[in-house]
Design brief:
binds adenosine-5'-diphosphate, binds magnesium ion, two-stranded antiparallel ribbon, Serine Threonine Protein Phosphatase 5, Tetratricopeptide repeat, mainly alpha, 68% helix
Length: 219
């Protein structure tokens, strides 16, 4: 077992992400209806579907960094509001770290995740506890880091990341929104999940599952 994935074989991770977001379009908009303007699922689905069209136009599925680049472009161009630039930047920063590598391993994956988070915080300014997707990303990274430090294999690091993301997402229910549209609600934002934290959990879980499947089939 190599515990690595060929980048050339991993572009389908992005296709799985598109399916995940489209399957949860209504769910994400419903959550946003409780705290925002009810468009989160629609926004996300629009951008991810545009990426699906760009990938289809390429014919064959490209390597993972190229597919992430297509996703970033589609999100930046296709989604209005806060999500296009935030997720667009997230995937672009990941792409930048992965580009030029033939294989993906757990250390490189964590580096890419790190770069994505840094970029999101850099442009969005959200900190831990502000009730945004950052509250999914930070515990996901911490769990992934701890698994890596504890000597877990790539699969173990991905499973830890997903568990951390889920815990972070669930914890947004108790937070008061301090940034973005929901912050206008003040105390009334407490008691419901943050939609961005939910989409971010779905994204990280999908990515983790797709990569784990590829590790299973790698020799
Ligand atoms: P809009 O707020 O324009 O309607 P969406 O409904 O698509 O956009 O997305 C809302 C989500 O955006 C929130 O749930 C939150 O997680 C995320 N968000 C908003 N502003 C920021 C920010 N500055 N940093 C990180 N995430 C943010
Ligand atoms: Mg919204």
């Amino acid at each position: 077992m190599t515990d690595t994935i060929m980048m050339a074989d991993a572009g389908g991770v992005v296709i799985d992400l598109i399916h995940t977001i489209n399957a949860n379009r209504q769910y994400l908009s419903e959550i946003d209806g409780a705290i925002g303007d009810g468009d989160h699922g629609i926004n996300m689905s629009k951008g991810f579907t545009q990426c699906g069209e760009a990938l289809a136009a390429r014919g064959a599925t490209p390597p993972l960094p190229v597919a992430l680049g297509d996703l970033s472009t589609a999100l930046m161009e296709g989604i209005g509001g806060s999500m296009g630039p935030l997720y667009g930047t997230f995937f672009f920063a990941m792409r930048d770290v992965l580009a030029g590598h033939a294989r993906l391993d757990k250390v490189l994956f964590l580096r890419a995740l790190d770069a994505g988070i840094a970029a999101v915080q850099d442009i969005g300014g959200a900190k831990a506890g502000d009730k945004t997707l950052v509250d999914t990303l930070l515990p996901a990274r911490a769990a992934c880091q701890a698994a890596l430090a504890g000597g877990k294999d790539f699969r173990g690091c991905l499973a830890a990341m997903t568990a951390g993301a889920e815990a972070g997402m669930r914890a947004t229910r108790g937070l008061r929104a301090k940034i973005g549209r929901a912050s206008r609600l003040g105390e009334r934002s407490v008691g419901v999940l943050d939609p961005g934290a939910c989409s971010c959990y779905l994204i990280l879980r999908s990515m983790g599952e797709s990569l784990a499947r590829r590790l299973d089939s790698a020799v």
